[in-house]
Amino acid sequence: MLQLIHFFLDQGYQITFGSTATEGEHSYDLKGIGVGTISVVLNHSSFDTILQDLNPDIVLFDRFMTEEQFGWRVFQNCPNAIRILDTEDLHSLRLSRQLSYKKALPFSLQSWLDQDQTKREIASIYRCDLSLIISLHEMQLLTEVLQIDEGLLLHLPMMYDAIHEENENNWLNFDQKKDFVCIGNGKHAPNIDAIKSLKGTIWPLIRKDLTTANLFIYGAYMPESIEQMHNPKEGFYIMGHADSASEVISKARLNLAPINFGAGIKGKLLNGMLCGTPSITTDIGAEGICANLPWNGIIANDAETFANAAVLLYQNEDEWSIARENGIAIINDFFDKVVLKQNLLDKIGLINKDLKGHRSHNFIGGMLMHHTLASTKFMSKWIEEKNSRP
């Protein structure tokens, strides 16, 4: 989201960031970069007034739940505004995988298609003029499995400066790096599960071979059950929030991410590539990032294989160096912000050139706007009326 904000600032847009959430200790200083902020109330007509006053050219929804709540108000008050959905990841895919994992059942595309949340999320994609898809795998699901028109979608992963030789010269080398790192927000279920996997099975196997190595786990909002895993005698450290994720990852020799379920792409793994730190992860962790390019480390899906891969790469400088080079190729081929920003600019320009024509080709979206958002609209109005009474 922050990268998108900078993109629109670079294009000369005046940005207003509205949120129903209250600011916390880790909130970004948007005002400091020239972005206006407003507090938005759920199920309240005050948002209509905000829209009328702003009269935006573009409205960007942060995930489909936001579009569900506010999309009908945007359509009603700003019919000519381009509506863009930033999916972040396919939440329905992550939920379906999580449910399958909890039940110890194999995940299937049919189980994803059967989820109510999948239908809600896909409906939101259709109602918008453009949806930003972060993962190559998710683009494939939407275009090949659901056959959504590519004109409604744009593959837009995280955007980074290309890695050049001068960047590499500033990285620590193999001997200067030590220990392992795992990073992830404590409010994200896949991260908590990954930490539990490390503590319960993977780290004891690694520590058996690397008796002096340490694992440092960083992330804000860790639950007490995770904080209680802190055990320096076992080299297992729960560190809490990191002021700079890049700094802590850059010092580690390996980045561990045993992701058992999830969706989208994993910023922590890309961050490792940007810092010259290879990773051990799973198929889910590496999914949608690099197509057929070799991975920035080793992919392993069970505890023993994962631990053996971590020990091997930690001790083998030649293999470790190859993995680092693989990471450079992945960033430069798929995440070059110059290319990606131009793609987004071109897509918005194309839609803006003939918004009416663009929407006329999206009959399903128009139908869903007519039917499903009518129900959302009247439910919201009912809640607003209910809340107004003593």
What's this, in brief?
The protein has 390 residues and is α/β, with parallel strands linked by helices. 52% of the residues lie in helices and 12% in strands.
Mean pLDDT: 94
End-to-end Cα distance, whole Å, is: 39 Å
- SSE series: HEEHEHEHHHEHEHEHEHEHEHEHEHHHHH
Beta-strand segment tally: 12
Strand order of the largest sheet: 9-8-7-10-11-12
Rg on CA atoms, Å? 22 Å
Sheet/helix structural class: alpha/beta
CATH class of the largest domain: Alpha Beta
Number of domains: 2
Envelope shape:
globular
CATH architecture of the largest domain: 3-Layer(aba) Sandwich
| Number of helical segments with 4 or more residues | 18
Please outline the major beta sheet: 6 strands, parallel
At the fourth CATH level, what is the homologous superfamily of the largest domain? Glycogen Phosphorylase B
What would the CATH topology of the largest domain be? Rossmann fold
Q: Helical percent range? A: 40-55%
- Report strand %: 5-15%
The low-confidence parts are: none
